[in-house]
Amino acid sequence: MTLTRNAPDELDVAIGAAIRLRRRHLKISQEMLADRCGVTFQQVQKYENGANRVSFSRLVQIAHALGLRIGEVVSREVV
Description:
Number of helices: 5
Structural class: mainly alpha
CATH superfamily: lambda repressor-like DNA-binding domains
Number of domains: 1
Mean pLDDT: 89
CATH architecture: Orthogonal Bundle
């Protein structure tokens, strides 16, 4: 397997997709999620697209803001 520096990691993309799915399910905007987590909406966009890796501490904040436990966010990306 060849790693390319420009391509986002598959796991980062999957976790971002799980965050996006839950956010949309709750009908909250990227701006609202960003405010709850203390980041910009652009940062939320990058997380959701897998362009930026979500640190564990930020993942805890995001999960809490979305009413989930960490395991629920991570398990959603596998589905």
